What we know:
This protein is of the alpha+beta class. 17% of the residues lie in helices and 46% in strands. It has helices spanning 11-24, 135-143, 168-174, and strands at residues 6-8, 37-42, 45-50, 59-68, 71-82, 89-95, 105-109, 112-117, 119-123, 126-132, 146-152, 158-164. Strand 7 and strand 8 (112-117) form a beta hairpin. The longest helix has 14 residues, at 11-24.
Amino acid sequence: MPQAILTRIPLRALALFALGLLAAGLSAPQPAAAQGAPRGKFGDWDMRCETPAGAGREQCAIIQSVAADDKPNVNLVVIVLKTADGKSRLLRVIAPLGVLLPAGLGLKIDETDVGRAGFVSCLPSGCVAEVVMEDKLIEQFSTGRTATFIIFNTPEEGIGIPLALAGFRDGFSKLP
């Protein structure tokens, strides 16, 4: 599968959407309230927090966004969070519209094929894949160097978008 060349894109461009998903559980983001307060930088990950409407406590996520240099419309937002009840850890990836939904979202960590996740929803700003992070996946993210997310435009054309994992362990351990 071809590897895309990366460019870091400012979180401002996608944070509104990503944190709207965090706060509203996959509904449309709300303009100013969805930006979340920055709480720290952990390697390549940013932690952002906010108190969702009706929630009794603040919720935080570590977030990273990347875009392919050779395909400017191909970008991903990767969000890792613990659910409000503290029982689950979620990995949400927001991919651009136009991806081939039945193919799902592929994931490799370093050279290990981790598998594919199905897309759960598409909104005007992108399509969302979500998985519960079991201990094994958390360990792979914590010890790996690069996670390569693979999206498909056609059954034959996969685009690999690498994401640096530096700082994941520290950021994840600081999530409330």
